[in-house]
Write a structure and sequence with these properties.
Number of helices: 12
Bound molecules: 3-isopropylmalic acid, magnesium ion
CATH class of the largest domain: Alpha Beta
Oligomer: single chain
CATH architecture of the largest domain: 3-Layer(aba) Sandwich
Pfam families: Iso_dh (PF00180)
Family: Belongs to the isocitrate and isopropylmalate dehydrogenases family. LeuB type 1 subfamily.
GO molecular function: 3-isopropylmalate dehydrogenase activity; magnesium ion binding; NAD binding
Helix content: 40-55%
Distance between the termini: 20 Å
Largest sheet: 10 strands, mixed
EC number: 1.1.1.85
Pathway: Amino-acid biosynthesis; L-leucine biosynthesis; L-leucine from 3-methyl-2-oxobutanoate: step 3/4
Radius of gyration: 20 Å
């Protein structure tokens, strides 16, 4: 009797349901090929949850996630909810789910698919060999510090506080070292230690832990310099570990290097094997419902889930190989097509990939 893996499926808003639909087909195909058993439970989250339940993160959805082995998330948000108060914004639900599930580590691989080099705004020779992972701290820092308004000498003021404790820094930095160890053994720790106290603590912790990883080459990079070096020498980075807000910014920059944000998957992890997997791209409300979105990032998020949560390495590889073979055969959705007139739709792309998954 195969062991049944429980997956909470949160399609969300915009193109979320379309891309998640294709990822579910991939799950089904791997059940057939590999004998896996997945039990999926769907939950409302984001804008649709605001509309139907009056909150972006209903307790019921959180319970579904907590009862699962992994969460597959589409995307949340859209102009409809952009002017809502903080409590009624999809983003608030996103921060809430990260915190409630203890997902302190956000892993965003950015690798350039050879056949898509022309889709990047950077020169191919600069991109050559770019394959990096941003490991972003996800439940601390300025995102979660105390926030308030007050009256100051010049009228209203707003305050956001940035707090990090040693435990929070240590666990994410260790993740960075551990991941680097499985790759090219290079870790760039990104901070702003020339200005921020939280960054000085960060750097102290990194330096204290570093001797435990003598096989990993460590560099400290100031965040502004990192933003520049990412454009100048992207291929020299292997693993980048950084705090919440720097990671938010740097990971978008890294994603854009690849020229294909529609291709990038991400994982949010806590202490155990449990993880939340989602495409890096957003809900793309401008193209939602037209059947033209790119499902590859969500499909690759399934591969990441197989690797990091279930340990299904062979099937993960099979999914990644299938994506590559479909791209190599020249199939493109509109976002990555050079000749837009030849672009295929979401379900066609999903079907091609499903058909290409081999055991
Ligand atoms: C991300 C997003 C979120 C973040 C927003 C939508 C709250 O930009 O996942 O990177 O800032 O973390
Ligand atoms: Mg972001």
């Amino acid at each position: 009797m195969a062991d049944v893996k429980k997956i909470a499926v949160i399609a969300g808003d915009g193109i979320g349901p379309e891309v998640v639909g294709e990822a579910l087909k991939v799950l089904k195909k791997t059940e057939e090929l590999y004998g896996y058993q997945f039990e999926t439970t769907h939950g409302l989250f984001g804008g649709i949850a605001i509309d139907e339940k009056g909150t972006p993160l209903p307790q019921e959805t959180l319970d579904i996630c907590k009862a699962a082995d992994a969460v597959l998330l589409g995307a949340v948000g859209g102009p409809k909810w952009d002017n809502n108060s903080k409590e009624l914004r999809p983003e608030t639900g996103l921060l809430g789910i990260r915190k409630a599930l203890g997902l302190f580590s956000n892993i965003r691989p950015a690798n350039v698919f050879d056949c898509l080099k022309e889709a990047s705004t950077l020169k191919p020779e600069v991109l050559e060999g770019t394959d990096l992972i941003v490991v972003r701290e996800l439940t601390g820092g300025i995102y979660f510090g105390e926030k308030f308004r007050r009256q100051g000498a010049h009228g209203e003021e707003a305050v956001d506080t940035c707090v990090y404790n040693v435990v929070e820094v240590e666990r994410i930095v260790r993740q960075g070292f551990e991941i680097a160890r499985t790759r090219r053994k290079k870790l760039a720790s990104v901070d702003k230690a020339n200005v921020l106290e939280t960054s000085r603590l960060w750097r102290e912790v990194v330096n204290r832990i570093a001797p435990e990883y003598p096989d990993v080459e460590l560099e400290h990079v100031l965040v502004d310099n990192c933003a520049m070096q990412l454009l100048r020498r992207p291929s020299s980075f292997d693993v980048i570990v950084t705090e919440n807000m720097f990671g938010d910014i740097i990971s978008d920059e890294a994603a854009m290097l690849t020229g294909s944000i529609g291709m990038l998957s991400s994982a949010s992890l806590g202490e155990g094997a449990f993880g939340l997997y989602e495409p890096v791209h957003g809900s793309a409300p401008d193209i939602a419902g037209q059947g033209i979105s790119n499902p590859i990032a969500t499909i690759l998020s399934v591969a990441l889930m197989f690797r990091l949560t279930f340990g299904y390495h062979e099937a993960a590889q099979a999914i990644e190989d299938a994506v590559k073979s479909v791209l190599d055969a020249g199939h493109r959705t509109g976002d990555i097509a050079v000749d837009k007139s030849k672009a295929i739709g979401t379900t066609e792309m999903g079907d091609l990939i499903v058909a290409a998954i081999k055991k």
